Amino acid sequence: MTDNNKVIVITGASSGIGESLAKSYAKRKDTSLVLASRDIVKLARVQKDCIQLGCNQCIIIKYDASNQLDCESLIKQTLLKLKKIDLLILNAGVSYHNLFRQSKDLSVYRQMMDINFFGYMYTTYYALDQMVGQYEKTGVKAQIAVVSSVSGELGLPLRAGYCASKFAVNGFFESLRMEVPQIDFTVLMPTSVNTPMRQHSLGHSNNSCNNNDSSTNKIQFNEDESKRMSLEDCCFVIVRSIDAKRKKVVFPFSNYLATVIKPIFPNFIERMAMKKAGGSIVPQSKL
């Protein structure tokens, strides 16, 4: 392994955006990957693909973002085996769709914050000292890339808890960027992407974190799912933005424009959000 070897840690790497990013970076010369997720079986499949694509090595670690000890262990194991972290991509997350006033089990909102916000915070905390130390020793900044969402800039219907977790993420890393100038921070805020995330949302039968909230009815979304951003396009923007060390990226452009217009024409943006991101609740009794 050469001194130029780049160590990249990706959380939530067993599917969706995380898996796609892992495969993109695996193609790069002198790259070692550390992939983390709750699903070790799927991670092993991604690991095999990444090795075939040419990365120097690919380590997989079982990781529950909501568990502080797992977050600490991920960083400790990485440093023990690879001695450094050049790029930490925080991507593990979960969604939840429901009308807040119909929620019967409010613990689902705490669970979402544990995964989407505290998971990012814990993992970052345990990596900071090493990453700052690398800069002080070499003069080269390590980087933390945060996969957030436009839902952290724009409130959306049926996603109150999810938006809250993403607003927290965006605010936290905006502050941290100023506190820790020895590290480059890139916060990425994509639109709705065509991934399995919705099928794995809290309350969905496919999710092993299912909170069994009986208030979770089926939602018929206004959104045309065929118009959701493709995984390939999303990851292309993410990788390009990380390479350019951009601080904050809202994409596609229509979403960025909405964040600019919102303070000036809030009612217009809310109407558009209802039209594009809203939906209707189908009671379980009618399914």
Automatic annotation (TrEMBL):
Keywords: Oxidoreductase. GO terms for molecular function: oxidoreductase activity. Gene3D superfamilies: NAD(P)-binding Rossmann-like Domain. It comes from the Eukaryota. The keyword Transmembrane helix does not apply. The keyword Oxidoreductase applies. GO terms for cellular component: cytosol. InterPro entries: NAD(P)-bd_dom_sf (IPR036291), Sc_DH/Rdtase_CS (IPR020904), SDR_fam (IPR002347). Belongs to the short-chain dehydrogenases/reductases (SDR) family. This is Short-chain dehydrogenase/reductase family protein. It comes from Heterostelium pallidum (strain ATCC 26659 / Pp 5 / PN500) (Cellular slime mold).
